[in-house]
Amino acid sequence: MGAAGDNAAKAPAAAAGSNGKGTAASMDVVSSSSSSSPAPAPSVLKSVLLSYAYVSVWITLSFSVIVYNKYILDPKMYNWPFPISLTMIHMAFCASLAVVLVRVLRVVAVPASPPMTPSLYAASVVPIGALYALSLWFSNSAYIYLSVSFIQMLKALMPVAARFDAFGVMLQLAAVAAEATRLVLIQILLTSKGMSLNPITSLYYIAPCCLVFLTLPWYFVELPRLRAAAGAAVRPDVFVFGTNSLCAFALNLAVFLLVGKTSALTMNVAGVVKDWLLIAFSWTVIKDTVTPVNLVGYGIAFLGVAYYNHAKLQGLKAREAERRAASMATAKDGDAEAGARLLPEKDAGEQKN
């Protein structure tokens, strides 16, 4: 009786011991498999909403800066016809504010892995700064000669028949080429160079470089005109230029954010929507001339945007389906491995009993 009682008492204890080991082993396997499995991918809806949020912020700021610059530079409005000086004010403001945020307030840290070496700066940042200087110089100069609606149509290279000025068209087309190349280089810098740059640190590196490149044309083109102009003509209003520079700073941050989170192609395609808004604004408010040919051409461009958005959404859905399938396969493999590890322990417990 005592032996039977002892055996009976030992049996539950042994079973409990084996079960305890099995539970611990299974917990280890589950924890190890869960730690090695990939993190769940964001849903398609979340990705689309974030992309549209970035695009909306960029469109709003770009719209504001374009209209504000047109107001300052247009001879019929504020009449301050010094586009290089205006661009230099923007870049000086952006560079100064970026330095304060990075070096003084330390809101963000400069990238340390890999560090921004002189060779990397010369190979990656200097070309972007040079192209940015050309793009800003040419595009802002074009506002003196062309209407807002005409410039937006030139950016999409659509057929136009509005107020034509050969020199203004040449400036804007050069700006389009420089800007397209700059956006591609920005995407390469943010994604292919291994740099962990954010919008503020990107501007911290690029804005001073752009300012230096703008100095050369400013010295030969606008400085003599500024010296010859009357004193009142060269004294910008602090409020107007201050708020204009703040808008330019916010737009630059939005550009780096949009290109870094999506792509340069997405930004250029989204620009068609922005151009529609600007054309509507200039047509209704500024009373620019817009012909039926303009509208048909831009309608075709808008259809292209719709198709691009559809194709991109389908691509996101396909990638998410692939990630889910891979995640499920990994989970099944983890369950099979856990079962394989539990079988020997279970057999050992049964043999002991």
Radius of gyration: 31 Å
- Biggest β-sheet, characterized? none
Number of domains: 1
Nearest-integer average pLDDT: 74
Low-confidence segments, ≥5 residues, pLDDT <50? Answer: 1-41
SSE class:
mainly alpha
Distance between the termini: 19 Å
Helix and strand succession? HHHHHHHHHH
**Regarding quaternary structure, how should these chains be classified?**
single chain
Beta fraction: under 5%
Keywords: Membrane, Transmembrane, Transmembrane helix
Main location: membrane
InterPro entries: Sugar_P_trans_dom, TPT_transporter
Protein name: Sugar phosphate transporter domain-containing protein
Annotate the secondary structure layout:
Layout: H1 2-36, H2 44-73, H3 83-104, H4 118-145, H5 148-155, H6 166-191, H7 199-228, H8 238-261, H9 264-286, H10 292-352
How would you describe what is shown here?
- With 353 residues, the protein is mostly helical.
- It has one domain (46-322).
- Helix content is 81%, strand content 0%.
- It contains ten helices and no strands.
- It has helices at 2-36, 44-73, 83-104, 118-145, 148-155, 166-191, 199-228, 238-261, 264-286, 292-352.
- α4 (118-145) runs antiparallel to α6.
- It starts with a helix and ends with a helix.
